[in-house]
Predict the structure of TonB-dependent receptor.
Amino acid sequence: MKNSLLTPLICLVSGVAWGQGANLTGQVVDPAGRPVIGASVVEKGTNNGTATGGDGRFTLRTRTAAPRLVISSLGYVTQEVASTEAASIKLAESSTSLDAVQVVGSRSVNRSVTDSPSPVDIIDIREVTAKTGQLDVNQLLQFVAPSFNSNRQTGADGADHVDPASLRGLGPDQTLVLVNGKRWHQSALVNLFGSRGRGNTGTDLNTIPAASIERIEILRDGASAQYGSDAIAGVINIVLKTSVNELTANANYGAYTAKYRFDDKTFDGGNFNANLNYGVGVGKGGFVNATVDFNQRQHTQRANVPAPDDIQRRQYGDPKASNTSAYLNSKLPISENIYGYLFGGVNFRKGEAYAYTRFPTVLDDDDNPIPNPRSNPTLYPNGFDPIITSSLTDAHGVAGVRGTFGGFDVDLSNGFGSNRFHYGVDNTLNATLGAASPRSFDAGGFQLQQNVVNLDASRSFKTVLEGLNVAVGSEYRREWYSLFAGEEGSYRKYPGALNDRAAGSQGFPGFQPRNEVNASRNNFSLYADAELDVTKSFLVALATRSENYSDFGSIVTGKVATRLKLNENFSLRGTASTGFRAPSLAQINFNTVFTNVVGGKPVDILLDRNNGAVSRAVGIPALKQERSQSASVGFTGRVGSVLNFTVDGYYIHIKDRIVLTGTFADDDDKIGPILQSLSVGQAQFFANAISTDTWGLDAVLSNSSAVGTGRLTTTLAANLNRLLIVGNAKTTPGLAGKEEIFFGVREQAFVKASAPPYKVNLTFDYSLGRFGALVRFVQFGHVLLYDYNTERNAYRDRLTTDVALSYSLTNQLRLSVGASNLFNQYPDFFNPQVTENGGAWDAVQMGSNGRFLFAKLQFRVSK
């Protein structure tokens, strides 16, 4: 009865609101009268908006009697106009430092993204989140930015709780992450398993709620000379919201409809998100904008697929996780030319991920069933599924002051960030304690902290040729890394009748006192860059940077870039640069004994620290920085109002990449006696073992045009990427002849699988009055991995389809429903006994959860 009354009421309210509107057309141009492409046009006080097409024109069906429009575009001052002024709207360029919009890749306040000599993607988060089912930043970027790749892992220890992500097929730690242009801290986690990021650290983008983000800028170009270590693949700059007097609230829910499962559930992996954002003005041009966000994600279950006889895990799928975040962004005027700023936030995450099943019996060497020495029939008659729990606390804050002094735009800031990862193990036991064992343990963890002080100054000289911008600056960074032990029962082998059994908590042995580390280092850098408009058509940019690390010395990098406008509709651009990435403190110091399952048999593996006893015994040298040389060349342009396009080819050579080696067994003639003395079955290390070449192509084509009385925006974006390992892996003299073990075909395949060889995104986005529809096709290229038997696991190409429909119930309330992976596509199946994570799939391509159905309510109101 309630539903029968509600439906006509909604239709009545919507119909009345529809009747109030009218079609409004206009054009947005720059100061020279040229059309501004992609400018945002929003009816003030509503969630109703559109974007300008290739000719700068727009059509918007308004919803209020006397509408006012808010027009914004990168590099221009936001403008508010009455509907009577919409025929021709001229935007002013951002000319003052206090109001400038900085785009990553350039320190010129007068440079727009279309003028950049380097390829930059701009992703409007409000537009993306309104029309897709993805809720966290990694998954949003996975499906809208072809050069970005991220997959959820399962059975990968810490990587189950922190999604590794990569740009242009390189490592997660080879992309620098900035927030509001300031260096952000990395995660304390080192990825040990999974198909992406093995041996790498990276930045946990999911600690930043999407609701707090205005846009994300992706600089797809080497930028170490501009921004420092880690920017080999590029830079991701997250720009926080600056809106004032506007309240936005969102409630989202979705769940998976699994095609393959063995229980009777129709849906699983329920994902709920709710957030609130509001900003207030402070003084003249200042603001405080705050966001609170909560996200709850449930387990998915994809075990026993497709062959029950091959099962080695009763639980396999996405981990359970809850995220609570609070973020703030502010600008506080001090005087007419000086302001202070404060931004950052905190994220609390709780996670639960299943480890490999400990069955009640196992097979001996003659294939006869015997009691499992890693289980206990009294505590667990049917065996058990250990649960690895995580408690993550992530926080970062930046405070600074910025202003104009003597014609220079000067920025002084200090930022401090921390990522703490604490493990627990539930539903487990210590086998050496027998039936007296506890069933849960504190397993210890690790923490990374970073403090960064920046002083930057830039100035524009408009009378030097057609314009010169000069920037200089310095950065002092101090980092701390610690690893702390768990409780005794999580790692100890207790004396007694069961002393021959594996020590510590099953599923995840705790960190031991001998693993504990407290390490730190500092870094000081100086940089300078200049951008010169030689003519109105020809730009040249140069940058250089010198860095000194307390633990391995100094390095100098450089970059040159150019852009040539052949006419108003076509430009050529190119860059060449050198870069570097310092080994993270985690890679230098992380060490542990963890359990892996190979062919259904658990084995304890020692991951020795870089200067540990085993590493020294086999001659593993101290880690040094990775060095890179990269180049890109491309063109941008438009064909009238029909088509806009950018095409960029790139080459990246990286020397001395840091990788996680293969495993050496305790019967090895070199390492075996040492491993036997430590009661571990295998060992592996961090080493600068390989060099790689990456060749690729990025292409983006877009069109926005009127279709009937509505507007259709079509976007085709593609990344083609090929990574080659140059020469043979570099082993130590003590391991000569063991290259296949040190870094063989299986480990090499994991490096190459950081991204499919191509990913293509075709999106159709149509709006008509209060109605909107989006259809998106994403083609993922094939991925080749090798299992534990070094057999090929060739994951063939896959095409996923996303559909979303939206309707504005009122001027302030919008409902969206849709499906991601509408046709329930999965990667190819393989034998769970020999895959990396013990399931029918590795973590590749679009993931292994199937169709995701979602609904969203979005509320937006402004004064």
